Model the fold of this input.
Amino acid sequence: MRKLVTFFTSLLVVALFLAPIGEARAASFSDVGTTHRAKEEINFLVDRGIVQGVSPTKFAPQRNVTRAEAAIIIGRALEVDGSPRATRFKDIENNSFASGYIEELVEKGVLGGYGDDTFRPSNQLTRGEMALMINRAFYEPTSSNAVAIQKLMNEGIAQGVKDGTFGEKLPLIRSDFSVFIARVLDDRFAIPKDQRFVKQKFVDVKEGPVLNMRSGPSADTALVTSIPNGSIVRLAIDTKDGATWVRVKAGDKVGYVHSGYLSDKKPTHVSTNPNSPLAKKLIVLDPGHGGSDPGAIGFGYAEKTATLAISNYAKKYFDQSPFQVAMTRTNDTFVSLANRVRFAHNRNADAFVSIHINSASSSSATGLESYYSASRAAGDIRASRALTTYMQHRMLEAWGLSNRGVKTAPFYVIRWTNMPSTLLEMGFISNKNDNYRIRTPKHQEQMGRAVYLGALDYYYHYEGYKNDVAPLYSKVGAKPSPRRH
Ligand SMILES: [Zn+2]
Done:
């Protein structure tokens, strides 16, 4: 049975490659139009009898390359004697069309077989295997994939694929293989030096989820694109060591980035998936009061100071995650309630968290409570209730004060925002015991962490991003809360 399969495989290979040389030019292939990106390279190779169509009118540019095809094409490019002969492989017939090329290239160390004396001629070739073969055939032989790939990039033979990797495990298609071989054989086809992006780096921004790519070597130039943290970029081949602004390629975009945000290793503080859907989620933190409005005051400490400090701590946590975060104020200024709502709407925020400190005329009033609006102008009340519930439980966990509950009230910022929103009252500034926590940096930090964890719980349970959120807990030594909505 295997003999029969091998026989038909051989017939197929013959059918693919035995079309008389020169009969068809790429221009006459109906599937390689005049604007096809590989047209020139395919013409070049067809003219030299190195590649042929799969029929007089078709080239099949998207079809995967098999190991037998690769042997024939590289063998012809090297002008080896390809006449059919006996090989060392039990799955290659002596008279099969590829046999001479396979045997010749194995002899030269360009190709190898498998441990069981097979060559597996119909197996598809990956881009990584192609890199090794081209290095062994035309450059320095190597058994290191990384070395082989770097060489092809440096020489302008091949580039990375869309995600910045080389796509080692991806199958190689006929049009790409044709392009690579044409570039090896003739410099005219090689990627111009100023378009070669070679060395791999990772985007590593501590302060946010993205790195801005600029049109020129300065932050004042136009924004080209924003590259997610953890993404691969490649440096232009002429990049000088120590340059501050460097020209890079990210995906199919080319521009300048600040080299201080690139590292050799994939950063560990981002989600393993740089395209995490969470990277599109914007959390707005709203530190209550500010400027001429101090909010409540107790024991000489103002609410506006605590809300900003706690928001800043929360922001630090979000900054270590894929989430985007923005604050309605970042210093001691007055921002009207209407402008706080407008701030969130203008940015199309996904969640709004307003941070406040309670006060009462009785100094014995103590504890934690949080609010959602049941009379919302717009937006989902259920989502707001869930967000509030998850926040409340993390607040209790952080400060251990009494639970005054999840409540409803039509406060302006939670009533008029159209995204899930919550207003948190973090203890009583008028109570001595609460006040101690409110003003102490260690406790402010714990409460900032609580806001972050509450948001994680909400996205984990309510919004259903379990897989994306799950790895974020362990990074801050936490676990998902029980489901509470
Ligand atoms: Zn307040």
The first strand starts at residue 197 and ends at 203.
